[in-house]
């Protein structure tokens, strides 16, 4: 038996197809929205490591000390009459790049009074500078000790505020091609004291030459020089011969007889001759003059710190032969 099915057209072809597709979509739950994969991870940043090789690091002056080679007392510089005292400033230096990176020929130092400052003009009273200290010793692979020395003159000002500044420079290291960066570090010491130096210098002979009894000598000039660092006054006393106990009340002891006190006289600071009668007696008791001998304050000028004493001798009767006596020149602080 044959069965025939009669097909009914649902409108025009395209419309019919779309209607069927919509119906089918509703039935099976089809959606036109974008779909996502369940469980995916979002990546919002990345970590990047940056590196550099720092091939040159500045030296570090960790401490500076000052001394004159005498361990005690600490913190004092004692000067040398009419001479120099070597003052050493020592810098302890840490150099990360190794001690071979220190350019010791470029190490320099300044020894100065704090109120003057390290940048003032050098002079022997207030400031000393060494532009090339050039004396370093390896302590460890990264530590070095560098000395800077100064020849400090006898007339450097007495002060408790001297200090030392040392600067060191490295050799530049290796940076980017064609460049060299020399790095410097400085350090300053604590304060030290340059002590007072009270000192004089004279020649050791006062020669009146040949004289007869009753004769008075010509005026003899005997210079006295201040070879310390403070102003001073002069003290004087004398006795006959070379033994003070024996010659205490005499001016000179002779081969024949003696010359008594009052026969040798002096004057100070005069530039013209003084008559014998107007001069001072040289006695066995200490006499302090009011004549000031200033400390040297000029590196170039000569004679600033010098002053003169003038002497005459009158020979009495009843003496003969070689006569001699002792004169003691003393220095007294003029500021006390």
Alpha carbon gyration radius: 48 Å
Strand percent estimate: 35-45%
What's the number of extended β-strand segments?
20
| Model regions low in confidence, pLDDT < 50 over at least 5 residues | 1-32
Secondary structure blueprint with pairings:
Layout: H1 13-28, E1 60-67, E2 76-77, E3 84-94, E4 108-113, E5 127-130, E6 136-138, E7 143-153, E8 159-169, E9 184-188, E10 192-194, E11 200-202, E12 220-226, E13 232-240, H2 244-247, E14 250-256, E15 258-260, E16 264-268, E17 280-281, E18 287-293, E19 306-313, E20 320-333
How would you summarize this macromolecular structure in one to three sentences?
With 336 residues, this protein is mainly beta.
Relevant terms:
mainly beta; Immunoglobulin-like; 2 domains; 2 helices
Q: Would you write up a description of this structure?
A:
The protein has 336 residues and is mainly β. The protein has 2 domains: 60-194, Immunoglobulin-like, CATH 2.60.40; 200-333, Sandwich (Immunoglobulin-like), CATH 2.60.40. Helices cover 6% and strands 38% of the residues. Strands 2, 4, 5, 8, 9 and 10 form a 6-stranded mixed β-sheet that branches. Strands 11-12-19-16-17 form a 5-stranded antiparallel β-sheet, with no helix packed on it. Strand 14 (250-256) and strand 15 (258-260) form a beta hairpin. The protein is rod-shaped and about 140 Å long. The model is unreliable at 1-32 (pLDDT under 50).
